Amino acid sequence: IFAREQTAERALGSQQDSERSQELVRELAPPARRTLERIIEGKASQWLTVIPLAADGLDLSPTQFQDALCMRYCKPLLSLRGTCDGCGGEMSTNHALNCKRGGLVKQGHDQMRDVIAGLARQAFWGVTVEPIMREGDAGEPGLVADIKINGVWDRERASFYDLRVVNADASSYSSRDWLAVAEDAARAKHRKYD
């Protein structure tokens, strides 16, 4: 009987915690609420799911750790410069994730590509970064993927991966469901290769 009572108390406490959590999220400003709802639903990213060991190249400096938490919970970065190096505009987290002239978007994309390629090298052979899929001809640009990995789907077959970084908190996506945004990004990548 005592064990059943404890289980019932825990369930009640968990339900009360969940209700309080939902209440707090509803009280947030719309951008922060959207970010937290996306995190809670698990439709975007997971963060810190492994121990960040230096031996694996996953360690974070104190500033990186603080910045990651601030970005995850829609708070302003603590160590952000006042203006953007690329365009001279006012720097904010959203601007840093969107500005194509400052180089941060490309740097983030390339860093993600290199980490994924490094992990793939631990499991597969023949991993190539920026493989040419089709040479350009007569003014037509060629096609270059981000990563080529041999043996993922079939032992002798190459598979190509083209990554896309999407700022889920961009104002242009504020009225759209995250799943729809992600599907549009995937379709845009597929059209590139059709």
Overview of the structural elements:
With 194 residues, the protein is mainly alpha-helical. It has a domain at 104-194. It is 46% helix and 8% strand. The chain has six helices and five strands. The chain has a three-stranded antiparallel β-sheet, with helices on one face. Residues 1-23 are annotated as: Disordered.
Summarize the structure.
Helices cover 46% and strands 8% of the residues. The protein contains 6 helices and 5 strands; from the N terminus they run αααααβββββα. The strands form 2 sheets. It has a 3-stranded antiparallel β-sheet with strand order 1-4-5, covered by helices on one side.
Residues in helix, %: 40-55%
Q: How many whole angstroms does the radius of gyration measure?
A: 21 Å
* Assembly status: single chain
The helix/strand class is mainly alpha
First and last CA, distance: 64 Å
Keywords summarizing the entry:
mainly alpha; two-stranded antiparallel ribbon; 5 strands; globular
Task: List the topology elements.
Blueprint: H1 2-26, H2 30-41, H3 62-72, H4 93-98, H5 104-123, E1 128-129, E2 132-134, E3 143-144, E4 147-150, E5 158-161, H6 178-193
